[in-house]
Amino acid sequence: DTGVSQNPRHKITKRGQNVTFRCDPISEHNRLYWYRQTLGQGPEFLTYFQNEAQLEKSRLLSDRFSAERPKGSFSTLEIQRTEQGDSAMYLCASSLGAGEWGEQFFGPGTRLTVL
Amino acid sequence: AQKVTQAQTEISVVEKEDVTLDCVYETRDTTYYLFWYKQPPSGELVFLIRRNSFDEQNEISGRYSWNFQKSTSSFNFTITASQVVDSAVYFCALSEAGGGTSYGKLTFGQGTILTVHP
Q: Are the Cβ atoms of A99 and B91 closer than 8 angstroms?
């Protein structure tokens, strides 16, 4: 296992379309995080899972966003009825735990462009 | 609420110069973790260091060193004898350790763009 992978790497879509991103964490990691990064800013937390349970969602995550992590393995992030303001890099990270085991390993990200 | 401030938006140095990246944080927690990540032009965030709030001992790793001062809520990062390959965006981040549902999520600063010229 070479690290966190994300697919697709790039997605261009038209406003109003739905998009889905996938994240495959490091296999033994039970925590999985989604962040969003816009140009010139640091990543912002969206949501995270411990195993298959979604434990927290940021207020940035509107009703158009939904995330799942079936069986505690890979995760998907879906955005419905995309808007131009959704254009950003979507980053996934995984960790073995939190605190002293909280080192988060990041994937390469999915860059979303909404036209 | 947690907050991380990296006041330096961009820094430009010539190779072999030393450079310090500043990070100031705010948190109400007594137990927390501080991180530095590097984001090279390829875009993938690379973990550099984690520090817990009870360990104020400074750390050195090769050309990198970190100075954690709880009294000033700062966690600064110094690169000694900078190299062109150090050019990247550097992020400081903070996570809570209170055991609640927010346990583990990272709050990032805005980042500092470091450019090292040959």
A: no
Instruction: Provide the β-strand partners of residue A45.
Output: A35
Query: pLDDT (tens digit, 9 = 90+) per residue, B5-50?
Result: 999 999 999 999 999 999 999 998 888 889 999 999 888 999 999 8
CB B36 within 8 A of CB B94: no
CB contact under 8 A, B44 and A33: no
Q: Do B47 and A105 lie within an 8 Å CB cutoff?
A: yes
pLDDT in tens, B46-101: 999 988 888 888 888 899 999 999 999 999 999 999 999 999 999 999 987 765 55
Q: Please give, rounded to a whole number of angstroms, the shortest distance from the CA of A52 to a CA of chain B.
A: 14
* pLDDT tens profile A35-61: 999 999 999 999 999 999 998 888 888
Which contacts (CB < 8 Å, 24+ apart) does range B45-50 have? Answer: B45/A43, B45/A91, B45/A93, B45/A106, B45/B91, B46/A106, B47/A103, B47/A104, B47/A105, B47/A106, B48/B77, B49/B77, B50/A102, B50/A103
Residue A71 main-chain phi, psi, to 5 deg: 60, 15
Distance of residue A35 Cα from the nearest chain B Cα, in angstroms: 9
Rounded Cα distance between B81 and B83, Å, is: 7
